[in-house]
Amino acid sequence: MAEWQLLNDPAAIAAMACERIGRMARRAIAARGVFSLVLAGGSTPVLTYRQLAGSDQDWPAWRLFYGDERCLPREHPERNSRMVEATGLAGRAGEHHPIPAELGAEAAADAYTATIRDQRPFDMVLLGVGEDGHTASLFPGREYAPGLVLAVHDAPKPPPERVSLAPPALRACREMLVLVSGASKRDTVQAWRAGGSLPVAEVADLPQATILAERSLVEVAG
Length: 222
Ligand code: 6PG
What we know:
alpha/beta
């Protein structure tokens, strides 16, 4: 069962996320010489990635992977990998492994399966959550094909073509952080905490998962 940690605002979530990521990185590098981190897409983690990029880490030992990617050209501003590069985080890490989503969903899923297969368990997986309870590019009401990396078609959040790590791949981690902020997430947070069947709830139902959520999303109005 994941632990909820309630924080006052996005800046506090970013500060806590950076602290937890840095701590896991030091532990992983001390134990195995590397730190493997699966990055969340979307806008919520930008603050965290910027803060991380400006911090003092054993960067050559960091290996960055992605939980999902949008099937857009490599340099498109809406790519998750471009977002990470723009924060400076990609350039600090010893290894940066974008999902080659410019190849198309099927080819990219095949290629990325080979990339991550032997990286499990990841030291840390970062996730966001959408207003409908999706996480990575795992959307409600979808059947997941077998395998570690999925080709996603007709995604309700544009673009429709995406690539996503499947639940077993995302759950193969020593620690997981889910970053939740923004008033638009209130309904999905309430449904999640009430035991709703949501992709994020399924993926993050782990003892090693922590949900860093804005306090205002949890407090019942009135
Ligand atoms: C994506 C993300 C997606 C994101 C959520 C939350 O490619 O869109 O991987 O899963 O994490 O939709 O997005 P925001 O952080 O922008 O609200």
